Amino acid sequence: MAGSKIAPGPIVTKNELGPRARRKVQRPQAILQAAFEEFVERGYTATRIEDVAARASVTKGTVYLYFQNKEELFQHVVGKLSQPIFDEKQFLEQHQYRSCDELVRLFLDTLYDHMTVNQHSREILRFLIADGRRFPTLGSTHFDQFVQPLMTMFDRILQKGVREGVFEIWTNDHISQILISPALTYAIEMFLSADNTKLPELKIYINTHYEMVMRTIRKARLDMSDTTRLRGYSEALYC
To answer: How many CB atoms lie within 10 A of CB 186?
Structure first.
């Protein structure tokens, strides 16, 4: 009938798809996982699309259906791995009755666990160090999607402490980045060190990091021109 509209068909959810359709939906993720494993094992330069395809149990042509070339595939792998650790709202709601000191400790424990135990987080740093110059935008992507949310989360904890009168008011925009940077330093040293036994024991390192943070935010204002004090913090971490 003229002017009549065709009624929309039923919405088909992922769970209602047939086996073939489900495989098609899952295929890009399988390719990305295979690519990640190949890049870890061989490095970017030595990895070939055919190796990724074989690991993902698809044809080489199938990989090219989803990704134009190896460069794009690598960028998608890094982008997929550069995801925030915390759901900020969920973290604060889940631990709303914790003290601010406890929140700082939980934050650091979660951060170190993610960056030293989680394989994806460890390898993303290796990718960025080894091939960051080849893909200049990847560093920015990782910062925006991974590092910036960390700083925002830590800012929220600091602000909560300020409201409750246990932390000082900070006017330095970089304080969160400075206070959480030892975790990134440790993760990078894990990657660069040929002998991890020479690294500080992780538990001691985290405890020292926590003490450094708490002494800074609870007892004194950080003077960025006070190089002696900053040097003392650095020495405390590596003694």
So the answer is: 19
> What pLDDT, in 10s, does the model give residues 52-62?
999 999 999 99
Cα separation, 168 vs 213, whole angstroms: 12
Angle at which helices 119-131 and 19-42 cross, to 10°: 60
SS3 string of 100-116? HHHHHHHHHHHHHHHHH
CA nearest to 187, candidates 228, 144, 146: 146
pLDDT single digits (tens) 23-76 = 665 688 999 999 999 998 888 889 999 999 999 999 999 999 999 999 999 989
Domains and CATH numbers, the chain: 14-81 (1.10.10.60), 88-238 (no CATH)
Spell out the long-range contacts of 201-204 with Cβ–Cβ below 8 A and sequence spacing 24 or more: 202/112, 202/116
